[in-house]
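User: For my dataset I need records formatted as: sequence, then structure tokens, nothing else. Please produce one.
Assistant:
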Amino acid sequence: MSNRASFITDLVMIFVFALLARIAHNSQDLPLSFLGVLNTAWPFWLGMLLAWAYIAYRRLTGAAVSPAGLIAWIASVIVGLAIWGIKHQAVPHWSFIIVASVTSAILFLGWRGIARLRARKAAA
């Protein structure tokens, strides 16, 4: 998988992450709408963009679980939660940190693991 396709897949995974969050917390304060999903996604996208700048600079394989997947995941979580904290003038609750970290790890690392398995099957 090319780095361009890997980058786009990461963008989509953050969108899925934000969509799931909006579905789980659908309320008047957090409406389930396209703009609401984008509002949830953009801080995590910013972290992912910073990670991808580093991935491109180091010429890493974007579809690899390690190090590219780990870098993209960790950067998106740290930046996304930091911006959430700044926007809400509060430290995110520990349960939010855990759920955001685990869910995004499943999405960021999961597709890479599946892609690796498919590549191995195709090569065999």
